[in-house]
Amino acid sequence: MGFRVVADTGICQGHQLCQGEAPDVFGFDEAADVVVVLDEHPDESLRADVTQAVKYCPAFALSIEED
Length: 67
Fold this sequence. Notes:
The radius of gyration is 11 Å and the shape is globular. The protein is built from two helices and four strands, in the order βαββαβ. By secondary structure, it is of the alpha+beta class. Helix content is 22%, strand content 27%. The chain has a two-stranded antiparallel sheet with strand order 1-4. A two-stranded antiparallel ribbon has the order 2-3.
């Protein structure tokens, strides 16, 4: 069973902590000052990194949905 990464750019505050936790999954749009999900359905091997990114997002803008 896989998972899907969701970012709410409406509440993202541009802290970029997610990039540090999972750089293969999260990018950053400098112009809009918001997170960009680079890989909406990352490999299961990245789940722990994505989970950390979700946990440490100060704006609670990230979530994981199970497929």
